[in-house]
Design a protein that fits this description.
With about 110 residues, this protein is mainly beta. It has one domain: SH3 type barrels (Roll). Helices cover about 15% and strands about 40% of the residues. The protein contains 1 helix and 7 strands; from the N terminus they run E-E-E-E-E-E-E-H. The mean pLDDT is about 90.
């Protein structure tokens, strides 16, 4: 399964058998050494911090959501259940900026 940065997938994160939407943040690699994706989870709990990026209203999400970069993680691609859609490039740029802040890469 090939994923692209900025795609939103419904993923099984193993939290009490709950699936959650996540944004793929790992780079596209046509021949990755491992079948793993790096993601940022979405949440509806907006704490108005620099670790969160508000998402615009997206037709495939039923509630207002934010990307929580503090929840950065990785999972095998087999735990991605289905692709929901994609965030706009401008929002992906904000997610990258928040990740740089969280990881002190800025």
């Amino acid at each position: 399964m090939k994923t692209q940065p900025g795609e939103i997938w419904l993923a099984d994160l193993g939290l009490a058998a709950k699936t959650r939407p996540v944004i793929v943040v790992s780079r596209y690699d046509a021949d990755p050494p491992r079948a793993v994706v790096v993601y940022v989870p979405l949440t509806t709990q907006n704490r108005l911090s620099r670790y969160e990026v508000p998402l615009p209203k997206l037709p495939f999400l039923d509630r207002e959501s934010v990307a929580n970069v503090q929840g950065l993680g990785s999972i095998p691609v087999t735990r991605l259940e289905r692709k929901l859609g994609r965030i706009p490039a401008s929002v992906m740029a904000q997610v990258k900026s928040a990740l740089a802040f969280a990881l002190e890469f800025d």
